[in-house]
Specification:
The protein is of the alpha/beta class. It has helices spanning 3-6, 40-51, 59-66, 85-93, 115-121, 133-144, 155-158, 171-181, 198-208, and strands at residues 31-32, 55-57, 83-84, 98-103, 106-111, 123-132, 147-150, 161-170, 185-189, 192-196. Strands 2-5-4 form a 3-stranded mixed β-sheet, with helices on both faces. A hairpin with a 2-residue loop joins strand 9 and strand 10.
């Protein structure tokens, strides 16, 4: 079994939610001191064990970066000094142009290009019955680990009661739906989903060049496999089935003269 299928030790950093559920990522505040000169796989394992957290690798994104190279063979450019789990993760991943994002109860290590797509494209369920918008957004933040911020200028609207029930929508779509029900708009600001007034959201989009209503593409499905005995995180897929080689076509040699060759064609009749 290769290291792609054995890693997937779990933890969290990156984007603190509006109101984080206690316990899931508390261990990241513990001090981590990496031993020896570990490669990427070993370093992540050490952080996961020291902080008692879960870390998943985004296999498609990382294979797109390194091809067939496996994490156990990826050398670290810098061995971070001792520090909190959050700081050590950031320092060891940044030189490799990787990021780690919270996804529910675990961390996902992915490429910088895919980080926001993975974070904002994760699937959620919304069940709000006459619930204040601010509370409904906090529930989404707890589900996903994403940062959802409410603009103080929209404080009055955030207290409006919303009622909606939907399943299997992206996080970003869910935040947009809830915001619309309260007469507000959502704007993306890097990893933050910012809920604000329509006028402020339009100004933010114009500054960033983002089109109104342009929901982020979640990218290809996340393909991971957990360490034996550890269940995969929400929305995690299985490794793709092994590619079955096509049968090699049988090559029939051309007949040789004097062997099983066909007889030569008859000679044309002689002219008189």
């Amino acid at each position: 079994m290769n290291s792609w299928s054995t890693l997937v030790i779990l933890a969290a950093v990156g984007f603190p939610p509006v109101e984080e559920a206690p316990g899931a990522f508390a261990g990241l505040e513990k001090e981590v001191r990496l031993m020896g000169r570990p490669a990427l796989l070993d370093a992540l394992d050490q952080v996961a064990v020291a902080c008692d957290v879960k870390i998943l690798l985004d296999k498609p994104a990382l294979q797109g970066r390194w091809g067939e190279m496996e994490p156990k063979d990826v050398a670290l450019e810098i061995i971070p000094k001792a520090g909190s789990g959050t700081i050590v993760l950031r320092r060891l991943l940044q030189p490799l142009d990787l990021r780690v994002v919270k996804m529910g109860d675990h961390l996902l290590v992915t490429s910088s290009e895919m980080a926001l797509s993975r974070l904002h494209g994760q699937r959620v369920s919304i069940s709000a019955s006459a619930q204040p918008l601010s509370d409904a957004l906090k529930d989404l933040s707890r589900q996903t680990g994403a940062t959802i911020l409410l603009d103080p200028r929209a404080a009055e609207a955030s207290r409006l009661a919303v009622t909606v029930s939907t399943d299997d929508v992206s996080l970003e779509a869910g935040v947009r739906i809830l915001s619309e029900l309260a007469g507000l708009k959502m704007a993306r600001m890097d990893a933050v989903l910012f809920v604000t007034t329509p006028a402020a959201a339009m100004a933010i989009r114009q500054e960033s060049g983002e089109a109104d209503g342009n929901i982020i593409n979640p990218g290809p499905p996340v393909m991971v496999q957990p360490v034996p005995g550890v269940a995969p995180g929400p929305g995690m897929g299985a490794l793709p089935a092994p590619r079955i080689p096509l049968p090699v076509p049988e090559i029939v040699p051309a007949p040789m003269a004097g062997g099983n060759a066909l007889p030569p064609p008859p000679s044309p009749p002689a002219r008189r």
